[in-house]
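Much of the work behind modern protein science is quiet bookkeeping, done one molecule at a time. Below is the pair of lines this work produces for a single protein:

***
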Amino acid sequence: IERGLTYSGDLPKTVERKSRNDLSTDEVRGIELLKVFMGYLSDREGIAMKHLFKAEVYPDLIRLNPKTPQDLMKSGVVSDTFPSEIAQPVVQFLQGEITLGIKSGALHVVQRADGTGSESRS
């Protein structure tokens, strides 16, 4: 502590992320939402979660921001065995075009009313 208090060198203005494990609070929250969504898709499609993503790819997937299912499939984040029919809803979820809702205690996909995927403020 004493050495740190007497340090007179320049300090960096920003801290660069050194690893994918160094996640922002929003990224951690996004990963949790994505896990819930992937669990929903897994159940809906009858595909085991382990065949969709491994836990270590969630940070890369959150940061990828694919615009199309083809972007997702070509990214290297998903495996060659990733079901292509799942790519479209994953991209839509990551773009904010669809989200999950709860109705009568059950999860369901909600299409954004404005169709833009952008957050509306009132």
Notes: The two ends are 48 Å apart (CA to CA). Confidence is low (pLDDT under 50) at residues 117-122. The chain is about 40% helix and 10% strand.
